[in-house]
Amino acid sequence: MSELSITTTQNVNINFTAASVSDRMLAYLLDLLVKLAYATVVWGIFFKSLGLTKYMENLDTWSFAAIVIVLFLPVIFYSLIQESLMEGQTLGKKILKIKVVKIDGYQASFGDYIIRWLFRIIDVNLSWGVIGLITLVVSEKTQRLGDITAGTAVISLKNNISINHTILMDLDQAYVPTYPLVIKLSDNDARIIKETYQNAVAKRDFATLIKLRQKIEQVTGIKNISGNDTDFINTVLKDYNFYTQSM
Prior knowledge:
By secondary structure, this protein is mainly alpha-helical.
């Protein structure tokens, strides 16, 4: 597995392990099995048990195609739906412990997932996976065309230390949170914020603290009521720990 260095919008380098080609291929095969299972249930059991096969044979080509497309929409939009709902993972990716992230370190958006899904037609479907495999092998960040276009990468979550362990902060039992909207952040966001914050404080880099505060406000909708960037970011991190540890 190769190391993947992601530069955040605050110019802080975060190192991840890029998902291996074998993990990505195996995740794809697992997802393919799920799709085939669905197709088997819908076509082999649903139609035959209800006796709809003969009815379908009497339909014109366009009507037949329309019904098939509607029934197989979950297969067509499988990766798009799952990655959107499961924050960059499908069932196959979840089992293999890999995940889609933005190159800037933040959570990929629905638009990014759409681009990856559209380019899957070129990467996988039309080329029988050859184009996708070639780009994965030659790409420095193990990206297929869809990843390169969307600005995403697939990372491995297989490590001995959970991401949650890197964002933990000591909280008093009587701690009262200030910003409920911090729950809009993901664990990955919180980790990047903490690392950037600690690095900026250590270097007394106030310009980075301002940019970080502005980014937090933009992503979460929180407004800084403390007036101090350092206190605000520290409170955001504590609030995030409070709410996530309480879940």
